[in-house]
Amino acid sequence: MTKRTPLIPFGFWPGSWGLKGKTREIARAEYELEQRDLEEKLLEINHGDDLDTLALKKLDLRLKFSEIDQYYYDCAVVKLTEPDPEKQEIAMLDINLKHNKISQYDYDMKLVTLTKTDETQQALALLDADFKHEKITQLEYDRKRADILKEPWVSMPVINWDPAVSSRTYFQLDYNDYFYKHLLANGYDGDEDDVINKWLNDVCISITEEINGMEADLITPSRRADPLITPDNDSET
User: Fold this and answer.
1) Distance CA 18, CA 64 (A)
2) Residues 6+ apart with CB under 8 A from 212
3) Of 93, 127, 130, 87, which is closest to residue 110 (Cα–Cα)?
4) N or C: which end of the chain has fewer CB within 10 A?
């Protein structure tokens, strides 16, 4: 503690005569102390009956004299002012993001675990955060979302069509287990490969029937399932 060295003790100083209580304490502090120690002593005198306020005021003082940094100060204020553990954890998370102690991605993921109590809603929110920060592709997002919601899902992420050589035509099918179960529940039977192949066959038949059902003048030759023989081209054969 930084104390002055007055020639006359406080009690013998005429300015102290007749002073009582808090007024005397303040006068004594101002007489004997200086700078930081004086400010701290005045805080103790003026806020000694309110320990929470005193603790905050002392934090302000420590920050003022660069004894602590802004990050430490912000964290300490939250611990002193927020009694609710969950709200305190969220506030600390905000501070860590503000001071670049964590990334935005880590912040978003942690915030979800703190604020979403429903298991499904939490899983969806975590998935949204992954997609937002480009941790997963659109395809991965769609499939995982369907899995979380326990919904059937199917996609064809790769389609390669060679009009010249039909054997080079292929596509890649991606689906989840709920889609397979959905087919079983709707009349398809057999092992997984059989069920999927039957469904694909039905899809192809449906497309063919749709094309064949279109009016001839609205269908280009490349889209016709069967070549149309018109009077003109019939005569050429």
Assistant:
1) 34
2) 224, 225, 226
3) 93
4) C
Neighbours of 144 (CB within 10 A): 19
**In the structure encoding, which two tokens stand for residue 175, read together?**
């689906």
Q: Extract the tokens encoding 94.
A: 């905000």
Residues 6+ apart with CB under 8 A from 97: 104, 107
Instruction: Answer whether 90's CB lies under 8 Å from 73's CB.
Output: no
Nearest-angstrom CA–CA distance, 135 and 40:
51
In the chain, what percentage of residues exceed pLDDT 90? Answer: 61
Q: What angle do CA 153, 128, 150 make, to 5 degrees?
A: 30
CA distance 179 to 175: 6
Alpha-helix runs per DSSP H in the chain: 21-32, 35-47, 51-64, 70-81, 85-98, 104-115, 119-132, 138-149, 177-185, 192-212, 231-236
Instruction: Read off the pLDDT of residues 80-126 as tens digits, 9 standing for 90 and up.
Output: 999 999 999 999 999 999 999 999 999 999 999 999 999 999 999 99
Residues in the chain: 237
